[in-house]
Specification:
Elements lengths: L8 E6 L3 H4 L1 H6 L4 H11 L3 E6 L9 H5 L3 E5 L9 H13 L2 E5 L6 H7 L6 E13 L13 E11 L9 E8 L4 E10 L2 E6 L12 H14 L22
Parallel strand pairs: 1-2, 1-3, 3-4, 4-9
Antiparallel strand pairs: 5-6, 5-7, 7-8, 8-9
Helix pairs in contact: 5-6
The chain binds zinc ion (ZN).
Zinc ion binds next to loops.
Length: 246
């Protein structure tokens, strides 16, 4: 980065349960994963606010969403507690143009599953394995400033098959010490909105403090910001050329 025009307004959403229930997690993220992510984005020049599951309306009122250019989403064990009307409102805002950056175990979140239309299931294993992230689309804006490869020293493994639609663009591919591979950085468009799924980020590893990860999140937020353009109308259409309607 830094962003070229005025930076988008970012809402960093977090389930915020592990950090309050587990000493091991609180040791890594004492102020919550959302704070670590927001600090990383702020260091790259973005304005952020945070919202969590236990806030009223999960912190995602119509007003908050209307003011949000890009929403980032981290959830894990309480996906089912996210209210369906809030999920619908998030998905509607994406279709209107809001960007959505879905992180790690957010692959199973209601908004992501609804926007993808598939199970979004995958293989996993928690063994503190080394992860190599390969940049497979080097010219992509989400990979700006990165080398062709970076390492997360200790990660939870996610393996293929990842049951998502084929991404419009694939930016990262992961390899894990145990041998599996995974499509780690997937770009989609839904309506006028851009969606990016980024794999790294387990609650017991300090991944959201790592420089490369923070750079990817900043790049992803800039990439996902609303692009404007006409709003499509889905209706009977009068011809713009002269045709015989008889
Ligand atoms: Zn995890």
């Amino acid at each position: 980065m830094p962003p070229t025009s005025s930076p988008p307004t970012v809402t960093v959403w977090n389930e915020y349960r592990h950090e309050r229930d587990s000493d091991a997690v609180a040791e890594v993220y004492p102020d919550g994963i959302h704070t670590a992510i927001a600090d990383g984005l702020a260091a790259h020049g973005f304005e952020t606010r945070t919202a969590t599951l236990d806030d009223p309306a999960h912190g995602l009122s119509l007003d908050v969403l209307a003011e949000t250019d890009v929403l980032t989403w981290w959830g894990h064990r309480a996906h089912d507690e996210v209210r369906d009307d809030v999920v619908e409102r998030v998905c509607d805002r994406v279709r209107e143009g809001m960007g959505l950056v879905v992180l790690h175990s957010g692959h199973y979140s209601k908004p992501f599953k609804r926007l993808m239309g598939t199970s979004c299931a995958l293989k996993w294993r928690e063994a503190g394995e080394r992860e190599r992230l390969w940049v497979v689309e080097p010219g992509h804006p989400i990979a700006a400033g990165l080398d062709e490869l970076f390492v997360v020293p200790r990660a939870e493994m996610y393996g293929e098959r990842f049951d998502v639609p084929a991404p419009d663009e694939l930016v990262f591919c992961s390899w894990f010490e145990g041998g599996e591979v995974f499509r780690s950085g997937c770009c989609y468009t839904r309506g006028k909105g851009r969606v990016f799924y980024f794999r790294p980020g387990h609650e017991t590893y300090p991944i959201y403090y790592q420089d490369e990860i923070r750079r990817v999140l900043a790049n992803a937020v800039e990439w996902a910001r609303p692009r404007g353009g006409p709003t499509p109308r889905f209706e009977r259409s009068d011809p713009v050329e002269d045709v015989d309607l008889g």
